[in-house]
Known about the structure:
- The complex is a heterodimer.
- By secondary structure, chain A is mostly beta strands.
- Chain A is built from no helices and 11 strands.
- Chain A starts with a strand and ends with a strand.
- In chain B, 0% of the residues lie in helices and 50% in strands.
- In chain B, the strands form 3 sheets. In chain B, strands 2, 5, 6, 10, 11 and 12 form a 6-stranded mixed sheet that branches. Chain B has a 4-stranded antiparallel sheet with strand order 3-9-8-7, with no helix packed on it. Chain B has a two-stranded antiparallel ribbon with strand order 1-4.
- The interface between A and B is medium-sized, with 27 and 18 residues.
Amino acid sequence: DVKVTQSSRYLVKRTGEKVFLECVQDMDHENMFWYRQDPGLGLRLIYFSYDVKMKEKGDIPEGYSVSREKKERFSLILESASTNQTSMYLCASSLAGGVVNEQFFGPGTRLTVL
Amino acid sequence: GDSVTQMEGPVTLSEEAFLTINCTYTATGYPSLFWYVQYPGEGLQLLLKATKADDKGSNKGFEATYRKETTSFHLEKGSVQVSDSAVYFCALSVNTDKLIFGTGTRLQVFP
C-alpha cells in the first residue's frame, strides 16, 4: 500500500518560532510537493521538488523554505512563524515525466500559530 | 494564466439523488483534467482523470467528460450515498507535473 506520511497531524506554535514539517514517501517518487489548504482558496502550491536537492518555487513561497536531502523526504520550513501561516499543510508525491502522473497525498498537518 | 473554477458549496443532497458538480477551466495549452476527493480527516486522493478532449473518466460510479468546446469537466453521479460526503476538487495540468486546483466543493449527503 503506497504511502505518504506527515510527521504531525496537529501542531501549535508561537509567533516567531522556526517550524519544521516533515513528509516521507515510500514510492520512490521523483516529485514531491508542499501545498497549503485554506477555506475558499483551495490548494495552493508552496514549493515543488523534482529531484534530491532540486526545488522550484510555487505560487506562494514567501515565508517558507524547503529541504530535500534524500529522495524520500521533503521538509517544509517556516523560518519565523506568523499567525497568517495558520493553515492545513498537505504534502504530495508523484512520478516524474509521462502524460499524466497521479499525485499521492499525505493526511495533512493542521498548524496553528498563536 | 491557467485556472480552474468550481461551483461553490456546500451541495446538500438526499441519498440516491443525482449529483452534478460544475467545473470549468482556462488553459493556454491542452490540459489534462482531474477530480480529486478529500474525505473528512484525510488527504486528497485521485477520483478520476481525462487526458484529451471527449475522454470520459469514471470511478466508483462517478463520471466526468472532457468537453473542449465548453472548457468543462463536470462531475456526475447517478445516485449518491452518505459515504460520498466529502470535498471534491477539480484540477488541471498543462505539460507539467504540477497541478492547478479549484477551490473545492463540499458535498453533504443525508440519509
